[in-house]
Amino acid sequence: MTRKDLAIERYQLAHEQALFSLLSKEGWTCYCSDEDRFTRYKEALGQSISYVLIQDESLCGYIRCHNDYGNGVYVYDLLVDQKYRGQGYGNLLMSKVKAEFPKTEIYVLSGVDKYYEKLKLKKAGSIFEIN
After folding, report:
1. For the chain, what is the mean pLDDT?
2. Which of 16, 84, 87, 106 falls 20 to 30 Å from 55 in CA-CA distance?
3. What is the pTM (predicted TM-score) of this model?
4. Dihedrals phi, psi of 35, to nearest 5 degrees
C-alpha cells in the first residue's frame, strides 16, 4: 500500500466489534440479526480467509473467502463502508486475495453483479439457492 494511513490486515478477533458494527451500519443484518446467526457467522469468520481494510485506525472494509483446497478461492463477502466507496478499496481487498493465491482461480459469489461488471470481471456462472 502506498498510503500511510491505509492497511490491509488478516482478520483477528480484535476486529470483531468493529466488523459487526460495519455490517450492522451497512444493513447486513443477516449476519447479526439474532444470537444464533451472530454465533454462526463468528464461527464462519474463524474458518475463513478474511482481511480487513483499516484507514486512520478505523475498519472501513473487509473481504471473506474460502480456499477450496487449491481448486479455487471463493469470495463470499466484500463490503466497504459507504463513506469510503469509490476509492478503489474493494479492488484493493480483492487484489490482496489474488496476491495471497497467485496461482489459484478466484471466484466471487455475488449479489451485486453491477459492481463486479464495472470492474470488468468475467461472469463465470450462477448461484442457485436450494429451498
Report:
1. 88
2. 106
3. 0.86
4. -60, -40
Q: Which helix (H) or strand (E) holds 62?
A: strand 58-67
Contact status, residue 90 vs residue 52, Cβ threshold 8 Å: no
Query: 23 Cβ partners below 8 Å, 6+ apart?
Result: 29, 31, 32, 79
| Distances from the Cα of 91 to the Cα of 15, 39, 58, 71, 84, angstroms | 21, 29, 18, 22, 12
Query: Distance between CA 11 and CA 53 in Å, rounded?
Result: 9
List pLDDT tens digits, range 69-98: 889 999 999 999 999 999 999 999 999 999
Which residue bears the cell 460495519?
A: 22
The full set of domains in the chain, from first to last, is 6-118 (3.40.630.30)
Distance, in Å, from the CA atom of 78 to the CA atom of 98, rounded to the nearest integer, reads 14
pLDDT score of 68: 92
